[in-house]
Amino acid sequence: MKTARSIVLVTLALLFGCRSHPNSAGLTPVADHAGRPGPGGSRSESLSISSQPANWTILRGGGIGSAIMANTTEADLKRVYGSANVTSENIDLGEGSSEPGTVLYPRDPLHRLEILWQEPQRLHPRTIMINGEKSVWKTVHDISLGTTLMQLERLNEKPFMLHGFAWDGSGGLTSWQKGSLEKELGDPDDSLAYKEDGVTWLALAPPRGTNFDDTTYQQLEGETQFSSAHPGMQTLNPYVFKID
Fold first, then answer.
1. Could you read off the pLDDT of 179-212 as tens digits, one per residue?
2. Could you tell me if residue 225 is left (phi over 0), alpha (psi between -120 and 50 degrees) or otherwise beta?
3. How many domains does the chain have?
4. What is the pLDDT of residues 8-31, one digit of tens each?
């Protein structure tokens, strides 16, 4: 369960509700063959690319079909992804704050994923975070790091609202405006949704090569909320750089 919190959180993640799912640890059981020793062999602690799980999808609330589910434990992660690929670290939450958590593939930006837990025993994920320009991890409709504003608009079947740039909550999505994605990702402006099934929150950033001195960008700076249909947003076509 994740309580309502300010959209200025500058790390990303996919939120988990407190519901558990029966008869499942929430992980693709590749460790049963990828991590188990063969005849005369020894168990590998670090999975190769070829033996990694095929499922990189994270669903709102850790639903059925999600690679990591509401009752996935840190021990499950080590069993499936290999102990060498699962580390305990302080997760940066921005504004000088951090929290103990778990990192998958800490030295591999493409596969890196950060997890905060509901309890110290690390038995139920609370928040899953990815950030950067590209990731194998994705959510519904293959939305991932690098998905553009225009792509999100098409999937939502209407414009949505997001914050301006160049501040702590830069580019944070604030409302799907009752579009199609609100049903699947949750309403980021609804505190009750955070308490129930969670909300998948996105933040967007201007693409590489953006001229920050140009008026097209400067008119989109600050805490003001903008429609994705704003001419400046359409011109910049920012991309998802955080999923929370």
1. 999 999 999 887 555 555 678 999 999 999 999 9
2. beta
3. 1
4. 333 334 444 433 333 344 454 333
> Is 96 part of a structural domain of the chain?
no
Please answer whether residues 179 and 158 qualify as being in contact, where contact means their C-beta atoms are separated by less than 8 angstroms. yes
- Please report, for residues 126, 179, 225, the alpha-carbon distance to residue 173 in angstroms, rounded to integers and kept in the order given: 20, 13, 9
Report yes or no on 179 lying in a domain: yes
CA distance 232 to 217: 7
Q: How far apart are CA 82 and CA 129, in angstroms?
A: 20
Q: What is the CB neighbour count within 10 angstroms for residue 202? A: 25
> Does the residue 8 lie in any domain?
no
DSSP bridge partners of 116:
127
Does residue 184 fall inside a structural domain? yes
Q: Write out the two tokens for 178.
A: 């009752």
**Residue 178: which domain range?**
144-190+203-239
Residue 92 CB burial class (10 angstroms; 0-12, 13-18, ≥19): middle
**What is the token pair recorded at 185?**
């990702």
